[in-house]
Design brief:
Elements: E1 18-24, E2 46-49, E3 65-68, E4 77-78
Parallel strand pairs: 1-4
Antiparallel strand pairs: 1-2, 2-3
């Protein structure tokens, strides 16, 4: 319905695909905010955010955070473009 559109007129943008993030995965990232910016020597997984159409509701929330090896490819992963204003 048009009433649920955002300010750009887009609707239903949640739960389409997981989003790859630039940060390296670190289980304690919330306790050490700079951890994701340091390239890991012993861990080689990137952060993914959000959820996709392929998973159960538990994993499709926008705040979902997971990790995967960056060389992996899936049809429900993507990325978001952004620019500083």
């Amino acid at each position: 319905p048009p009433e649920c559109a955002n300010g750009y007129g887009l609707r239903c943008m949640a739960e389409n695909v997981h989003e790859w993030c630039l940060d390296w995965y670190h289980a304690g990232a919330y306790d050490d905010p700079g951890a994701g910016e340091r390239e890991p020597a012993e861990r080689a997984r990137k952060v993914s955010r959000g959820g996709s159409w392929r998973h159960s509701v538990k994993f499709t929330r926008l705040t979902a955070r997971a990790s995967l090896a960056p060389e992996r490819r899936y049809n429900d992963f993507g990325f978001r473009l952004y620019a500083d204003a």
